[in-house]
Write a structure and sequence with these properties.
mainly beta; 9-stranded antiparallel beta sheet; 1 helix; 53% strand
Length: 129
């Protein structure tokens, strides 16, 4: 029995070390905020999510890296139209032609559509998270 327990503890520690190798720090704040930092200086901040919610309106995902920052706002579940019932996520980026909007519409499994609006061009394609 001691051998089995020892093997289990060693396996658990191995998985723990390998699984968290690149993550420097992960903090869960009481207000539903998660911050994950990597050794390379990148971080992901997730705000406004509550346990069990898959599309919380007004939640936000922020990604910071040495290449720049990106913010994705969760608009909420679409109530009518072509994307009815899907979760709408929006990112706005500055580009040479002005503001580019990246709209993502997904179901609970992360499958749906991505609609990119840049100037007068609109590109719609299937999307999978």
């Amino acid at each position: 029995m001691k051998k089995i327990l020892s093997l289990f503890v060693i396996l658990f520690l191995f998985i723990l070390v390998i699984g968290c190798q690149e993550v420097k720090e992960e903090t869960l704040e009481p207000k539903g905020e998660i911050i994950i930092e990597t050794e390379e200086g990148s971080s992901v901040k997730i705000e406004g999510f509550k346990e069990g919610e898959w599309c919380p309106k007004d939640a936000q995902i922020s990604i910071s890296s040495t290449d720049g920052d990106l913010v994705m706002n969760i608009v909420g579940i679409v109530e009518s139209g072509e994307f009815e019932g899907l979760c709408h996520k929006l990112t706005e980026l500055d580009s040479a032609t002005g503001i580019m909007k990246v709209n993502i519409y997904v179901d609970e499994k992360g499958k749906g559509f991505q609609v990119i609006e840049s100037g007068e061009q609109i590109i719609k394609q299937e999307y999978q998270e």
